[in-house]
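> forwarded from #structure-qc
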């Protein structure tokens, strides 16, 4: 069976939601320059995680919200942004619509760190105004420790080792491998706020020996994708478990 809500017809939906399935995963991203990986990176990753986790979490996948809050990389070609107020209102109404359709638990699978605040605010409103349970998930925070087990003490960041690995696992043909390790990288520094940011790969700290370069190893990438799925699944399950006492 398909776990994609768009594949279902309304009669199947009426029969099974919420009596049999009351959870839905809503992927949220943005369109943004990402070094040598696609403009759609922040959409592709949460969508892939959602599709692979749907059967494991017994949740449907809602259509993604692909437009988001691109900020310091907006001047890079192909990046797009909408305003925070519009983004938040649209995401809230999309999620509230899913609640009205019958879902009682919503996983906001966010792919972009620059909109954490707004996504969290949507979760707050879903409870305040709809009495719907929601959880916002950010894979990079959850998977960071596990990344070290596979890649060692690398310097990651936006479009860096971790994100490139997931894209390599999800859609390897879309990685510009010739440019991946040579395209400009720059560290985030306290006390420096450049706009545009001076590189499309933003490292979380300085690199001293080139340890911020994306790693193009398909086997490691597959392993990192698998552990990312596992840690995200566990995080959502833990939340679902806690909610049982409240519902
Ligand atoms: Zn990204």
């Amino acid at each position: 069976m398909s776990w994609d809500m768009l594949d279902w017809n309304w009669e199947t939906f009426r029969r099974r939601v919420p009596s049999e399935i009351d959870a839905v995963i809503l992927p949220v991203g943005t369109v943004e320059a990402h070094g040598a990986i696609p403009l759609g990176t922040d959409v592709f990753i949460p969508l892939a995680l959602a599709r692979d986790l749907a059967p494991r979490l017994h949740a449907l996948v809602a259509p993604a919200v692909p437009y988001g809050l691109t900020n310091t990389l907006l001047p890079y070609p192909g990046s797009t942004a909408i305003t925070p107020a519009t983004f938040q209102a649209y995401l809230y109404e999309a999620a509230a619509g899913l609640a009205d359709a019958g879902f009682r638990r919503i996983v906001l699978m966010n792919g972009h760190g620059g909109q954490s605040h707004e996504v969290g605010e949507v979760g707050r409103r879903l409870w305040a105004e709809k009495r719907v349970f929601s959880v916002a998930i950010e894979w990079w925070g959850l998977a960071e420790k596990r990344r070290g087990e596979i890649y060692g003490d690398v310097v990651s960041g936006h479009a860096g080792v971790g994100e490139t690995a997931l894209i390599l696992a999800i859609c390897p043909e879309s990685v510009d491998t010739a440019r991946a390790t040579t395209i400009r990288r720059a560290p985030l520094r306290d006390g420096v706020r450049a706009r545009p940011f001076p590189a499309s790969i933003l490292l979380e700290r300085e690199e001293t020996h080139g340890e911020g370069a994306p790693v193009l190893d398909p086997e490691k990438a597959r392993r990192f994708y698998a552990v990312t799925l596992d840690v995200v699944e566990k995080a959502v399950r833990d939340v679902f478990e806690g909610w049982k006492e409240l519902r």
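QC bot note: The mean pLDDT is 97. Residues 34, 41-42, 112, 158, 163 surround zinc ion (CB under 6 Å).
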